[in-house]
Amino acid sequence: MTEIKPLPHILQTKPYVPGGKLAGAQGHVIMLASNENPFGPSPKAIEAMKAVAADVHVYPDPEYRALRETIAAATGIADSARVVVSAGSDEIIHLLTQAYAGPGDEILFTEHAFSMYRVSALSHGADPVTVPETELTAGVNAILGAVSPRTKILFLANPNNPTGTMLPVDALTQIQDSLPPHVLFVVDGAYAEYVGPEYEARIRDLVDRRANTVMMRTFSKIHGLAALRLGWGYMPEAVAQTYQRIRGPFNVNGLAVAAGMASIQDVEFLSRSREHNSDWRVRMTGALNAIGLATPPSHANFVLPDFGTAERAAAANEYLKARNILVRAVGGYGLPARLRITVGSAEDNQAVLSALSDFTASR
Ligand SMILES: Cc1ncc(COP(=O)(O)O)c(C=O)c1O
């Protein structure tokens, strides 16, 4: 028997369940489970990684000055000192939780929110608190009504994963203005690029309005760099300084630095990815609704059809798996009757739609 034991709250933490792979599949698998960019990374990002591949024996710049300045310039941020970088945006969720919440504190998020907020709260001993949603969205009053004297952070993914829904910027502004001064408001913009540049600018400006708001972003989605693990945030000065105090000195690797800088400047690649997504998410939503699978409009790079019952969603998932198509079951998000389907290449989207059309025709 060992007496080496983790802290009690660590034992209560259930790890994040990723989209995963299709075990035992033969041949090409259509991967629509993890909201990755079907175009892959920008060719310019690949070139940039090749150019630095022979230099990876040297540690990266611990201040990540060039990366932070490039992100700031590309996104219209005046002060790059308030831009921070991370090993995936998951790291920002963890470091902000570590810095601002612990046992006895509450972390607030909505009912069907991205599940890392819960994982992070529990792994730091804080209490996760969820705000009920109606029709896959929580309103401003519901969110503000759930704030308590113990709330330390409100995480809000906008658009949210896995619902694809979002609150208008006016609602975010109202939340920002109404939160008590002890609550940090974290707007997770993992899918912001899929809404569009105007929205990206508006959530950036939100950070400048008040010293209580952080914007989080990722290179894993529209940038197609998920395997590199690169995220970034724009923060009030005091929060950025706190973040820099606790992050690992070399938390972002050199290949990610090179690829991230090239990708965020590749405006043509980003526009092409966004346009493909905007076109296909509408087509997929329409096609799914037409075969009787109620699918709400999505603001992100995935859709969330409703199969009516958990059993039927599970049967559809098995039906797709048998045809080498991997989508995401979302029972863990409290949505057992739905499946989340990433917008993929035209060919892959057609394949999943055709398979679901056959499935719904048969049961
Ligand atoms: C809403 C949201 N936030 C954050 C992340 C984390 O992304 P990453 O750690 O790859 O940057 C994801 C990934 O799926 C997400 O959906």
Can you characterise this structure?
This protein is of the alpha/beta class. It folds into two domains: 119 residues, Aspartate Aminotransferase, domain 1 (Alpha-Beta Complex); 224 residues, 3-Layer(aba) Sandwich (Aspartate Aminotransferase, domain 2). Helix content is 42%, strand content 13%. The protein contains 14 helices and twelve strands. The chain has a seven-stranded mixed sheet, with helices on both faces. A three-stranded antiparallel sheet has the order 9-12-11. Strand 3, helix 5 and strand 4 form a beta-alpha-beta unit. It binds pyridoxal-5'-phosphate (PLP). The site of pyridoxal-5'-phosphate (PLP) has 13 residues, from helix 4.
Q: How many strands appear in the DSSP assignment?
A: 12
In the CATH hierarchy, what is the superfamily of the largest domain?
A: Type I PLP-dependent aspartate aminotransferase-like (Major domain)
Question: What's the number of helices?
Answer: 14
Secondary-structure element order, as H and E?
A: HEHHEHEHEHEHEHHEEHHHEHEEEH
Q: What is the subunit arrangement here? A: single chain
| The CATH top-level class label of the largest domain | Alpha Beta
Give the tally of structural domains.
2
What's the quick description here?
With 363 residues, this protein is of the alpha/beta class.
Comma- or semicolon-separated keywords:
363 residues; alpha/beta; Aspartate Aminotransferase, domain 1; Aspartate Aminotransferase, domain 2; 2 domains; seven-stranded mixed β-sheet; three-stranded antiparallel β-sheet; 14 helices; 12 strands; 13% strand; binds pyridoxal-5'-phosphate
